[in-house]
Design goal:
77% helix, Hypothetical Protein Yqey, Chain: A, domain1, 2 domains, mainly alpha, globular, 7 helices, 146 residues
């Protein structure tokens, strides 16, 4: 199976050949952000880093949907929502929150007593596998219940 960056490139080429302008532009934007990440890292990003980048792109579009909706621009909000849906297809299925909760409970039992320490442990295990805000919420709940 090709890596995620390779899949993005191949899909952009396919979209360009099929003359899907919106999809070509969207994938070009993501690939440009990926190139910037590569320059920043000094190496090609791995799949986990690409997934993190895609999640950020989705978050940006979600913020845009909220702003356009509040501004009465339903047409632009719909376009951003469509782009968000396309980007979602590149993400793996999220990890079951119960699995994250079990890992949080184990980390607390092993001595993680504050949010920073617990998030460090959880992000090391689940980065790229689910949204960081979900991990943060579960970590906060686990610490409150200890």
């Amino acid at each position: 199976m090709p890596d995620l960056a390779g899949r993005l490139r191949a899909d952009q080429i396919a979209a360009r050949k099929a003359v899907h302008k919106d999809r070509t532009l969207l994938l070009g934007t993501v690939l440009a952000a990926l190139k910037n990440k590569e320059i920043e890292l000094g190496r090609e990003p791995d799949d986990a880093e690409v997934i993190e980048l895609i999640r950020r792109q989705i978050k940006q579009r979600q913020d845009s949907v909220e702003q356009f909706t509040a501004g009465g621009r339903g047409d632009l909000a719909a376009r951003e929502a469509e782009e968000q849906a396309v980007l979602q297809t590149y993400l793996p299925a999220d990890v079951d929150p119960r699995e994250i909760r079990a890992a949080a409970d184990r980390a607390i039992a092993d001595g993680a007593t504050n949010l920073g320490t617990l998030m460090g442990v959880l992000m090391a295990g689940f980065r790229g596998k689910t949204d960081g805000s979900v991990i943060n919420q579960i970590a906060r709940e686990a610490l409150q219940q200890k």
